[in-house]
Amino acid sequence: MKIPHNIIATGDDLGLNPSVNKAILYCFEHGYINSTSFLTSTEYFDETVELIHSNKTISNIGVHVNFASGRPITQFTQRDFLDNEGNWDLKKTNRKVYFLSADAKATFMKEIYAQIDKAVAANIGVLHIDSHYHLHTLPCFWRLFLQAAQRYKLKIRLAQTYYEGNYIKYLYRKRINDVFKSEGSQYSNYFESVNHFLKSHEAGVVNSLTEVMLHPDFDENGKLIDHFDQNSLPDWVNYLENLKLSGL
């Protein structure tokens, strides 16, 4: 299977668990994806590093910075963002309007750096960054992620570039994307869900570099699925197969 040159098909959540790792490798091997994003803060870090080093087909690797689940990997002092057991509390980190103190910014910045450094220290060729649950696009975080991208000379995932029925949200996302682009840090020119991409490109023609997000996994019956939106990955595979049949 051949992905068109101006499409980045990213398999998110590499490192989440063995099933996801197996599915992402499978998708690389079958040409369904050409990029992935690595969660470096899970218990499966070592086996994921081994998987990457043992399979050169896994390429275009980014760090999927995680403030959403599990524990921080640094001595994280901002307890307001953690639950009583010291795990990330997504209800707290995913606040749409939140202003961080200077100390909080420094603490989050240290955590971002540590999650990237963990991959770099394992000899992973990191090319881009994004985040679990798109937290890097929130008002309190996006400047920190841009700073990290520039420090490590990485590209950064855009906020979703399509209109979802909320004009304020669309304008906000456009604003931060314009900053990413003005700094030359964007990973693509557009970033879309599979559903929106397929609605917008029924003929298979893509005019500008576009990233499409996928979450490969296998269900209990061994069927390839998208663990975030079950139909997205099968729909994506059908799209690629139709491109092949049409000769595009």
TrEMBL record:
<dbReference type="GO" id="GO:0019213">
    <property type="term" value="F:deacetylase activity"/>
</dbReference>
<dbReference type="Pfam" id="PF04794">
    <property type="entry name" value="YdjC"/>
</dbReference>
<dbReference type="GO" id="GO:0005975">
    <property type="term" value="P:carbohydrate metabolic process"/>
</dbReference>
<dbReference type="GO" id="GO:0046872">
    <property type="term" value="F:metal ion binding"/>
</dbReference>
<protein>
    <submittedName>
        <fullName>Putative glycoside hydrolase/deacetylase ChbG (UPF0249 family)</fullName>
    </submittedName>
</protein>
<dbReference type="InterPro" id="IPR006879">
    <property type="entry name" value="YdjC-like"/>
</dbReference>
<dbReference type="GO" id="GO:0016787">
    <property type="term" value="F:hydrolase activity"/>
</dbReference>
<keyword id="KW-0119">Carbohydrate metabolism</keyword>
<keyword id="KW-0460">Magnesium</keyword>
<dbReference type="InterPro" id="IPR011330">
    <property type="entry name" value="Glyco_hydro/deAcase_b/a-brl"/>
</dbReference>
<keyword id="KW-0378">Hydrolase</keyword>
<keyword id="KW-0479">Metal-binding</keyword>
